[in-house]
Amino acid sequence: MTEKYKDRIDAGQVLAKQLRVYEGRDDVMVLALPRGGVPVAFEIAKALRAPLDVFIVRKLGVPGHSELAMGAIAMGNVTVFNDDIITELGIPKSAINAVVADETMELKRRETAYRDKRAFPDLRNKVIILVDDGIATGATIRAAIKALKQLKPTSLVVAVPVAEKQMCDEIQLLVDRFICPMRPVHFYAVGAWYEDFSQTEDEEVYNLLDEARNFIKSPH
């Protein structure tokens, strides 16, 4: 393993090699956390010949410090709060509610944009491989895990290219299988582990989802 991934495509290809056991199975579905998780997940879905879809989660940023997560919301009306940060910073309920309202609107916008009017697939009796381009605070992935468990998949696998070692130890307790090739003790940020970590735009998400629908067999 090199010290950095070249880009998200490279990261997805590395993960795909570790997920070969799922190749060609008709009970497997790959779900990406947009936007950055989509190019990673696309490579996995292509290698496994599995359907690809998005699972939309929005981080709830601290007012005035939006990069710091005080929680997250996910499809299925799931909300997860980082109580330690909320208490430590003394964030008032009115401010939290305002951020939740804004992010709920954005979540619905993205769901319409990325998924159009297609019904969300039934995940019962499915092995779900949930993919992102890395884990920073863990709020987003935790919200996604909590929401997906409510949809009763057979098994929930989380695959990410990089996360801090302690975060890996915590997340793997929440899922059936956790794959993360790069587990630095000193993490800094997800982008620090990529040579190219340029922003994934909506257009790229649309194109990759379209391409995946064209070449990957539909779920039974």
Question: Could you please describe the fold and organization of this structure?
Answer:
It is built from 7 helices and 8 strands, in the order H-E-H-E-E-E-E-H-H-E-H-E-H-E-H. The chain is an alpha/beta fold and 220 residues long. It has one domain (1-212): 3-Layer(aba) Sandwich (Rossmann fold), CATH 3.40.50.2020. The strands form 2 sheets. It has a 5-stranded parallel beta sheet, with helices on both faces. A 3-stranded antiparallel beta sheet has the order 3-4-5. Strand 6 (127-131), helix 5 (139-149) and strand 7 (155-159) form a beta-alpha-beta unit. Helix 1 (8-18) crosses helix 2 (37-48) and helix 2 (37-48) runs parallel beside helix 7. The protein is globular.
Helix content: 25-40%
Tally of distinct domains = 1
CATH topology: Rossmann fold
Strand order of the largest sheet: 2-1-6-7-8
Radius of gyration: 17 Å
CATH architecture: 3-Layer(aba) Sandwich
- Name of the CATH class: Alpha Beta
End-to-end C-alpha gap = 36 Å
- Percentage beta strand: 15-25%
Order of helices and strands: HEHEEEEHHEHEHEH
Structural class, judged by helices and strands? alpha/beta
Using brief descriptors, characterize the structure shown.
220 residues; Rossmann fold; single chain; alpha/beta
Brief write-up:
The chain has 220 residues and is α/β, with parallel strands linked by helices. Helices cover 39% and strands 19% of the residues. The longest helix is centred in the middle third of the chain and has 23 residues, at 93-115.
